[in-house]
Amino acid sequence: MKDEATITSRELVLEIKDLHKSFGDNHVLNGFNMKLYQGENLVIMGKSGSGKSVMIKCLVGLMEADKGTITVMDNDITKLDQKSLDVLRADIGFLFQGSALYDSMTVRENLEFPLRRHKRAFKNHNNTEKLVVEALKNVGLEHTIDLMPSELSGGMKRRVALARTLILQPKIILYDEPTSGLDPITAKEIIILMQDIQKTYGTSSLIITHDVDCARVISDRMILLIDGVDYAKGTFKELSASNDPKIKAFFKQ
Ligand SMILES: Nc1ncnc2c1ncn2[C@@H]1O[C@H](COP(=O)(O)OP(=O)(O)OP(=O)(O)O)[C@@H](O)[C@H]1O
Ligand SMILES: [Mg+2]
User: Fold this and answer.
1) What does the DSSP assignment read for 102-147?
2) If you measure from the C-alpha of residue 50 to the centroid of ligand 1, how many angstroms do you get, rounded to a whole number?
3) pLDDT tens, 26-38?
4) Which of 124, 129, 186, 231 has its CA 20 to 30 A from that of 140?
């Protein structure tokens, strides 16, 4: 764990300001703000349906925000043309909620997919085999290269999805519920893997979770998404000691 003051003195890699998103009368995000600094693990917690996935989808341009600015490595993503957005996306790894592997493709084909998609941005694409094997080694699953997703366990799928995210060597990784649906031991393995990745590559990570154990172990800083806004921020220690009932509710076991 890193000291909060050290982190906030670092370079800002991602910033969301005043993000609004509604679906009809359902006002999901009502002015959400966040900053992600170089090399940190920022955890965002919020209860189910609070808008965590919506926020992350706005962030990667899968959903259009109603209002607000999103700056990724000095680029305002709402103002980028498609080509520049694609180049920038190669720097942002996104581990979807669930694992979202392509069921009709082998593990190898799943991992080759982002390399083909980001050919323009990725210079070493000639040696895909080597990259695929290395990425699988990173998650301890090189032996699954020719298997289909249906032949893998839930935890293995999650690790393959993580390998697929890592293959483009992203500067920022967005994790949407990386441990959900996994048993505690497998969840712990995924968390250790995430920590290893951060240490090896110096990646900046935004981790969305409602797993308190995951937040405790991995977070340098945390933001609580409540009522569509960044209701509280601080370290795990600070937030878990809060007397605010809305905050306390998160940390009750
Ligand atoms: N495409 C959509 N169209 C309409 N409503 C949507 C859409 N996507 C999300 N919502 C609504 O936005 C709200 C927030 O959904 P979101 O998926 O962001 O929740 P979440 O915080 O990620 O929850 P969970 O922890 O269960 O994953 C929900 O009320 C949901 O019904
Ligand atoms: Mg979600």
Assistant:
1) -TTS-HHHHHHHHHHHTTTT-TTGGGHHHHHHHHHHHTT-GGGTT-
2) 7
3) 999 999 999 999 9
4) 124
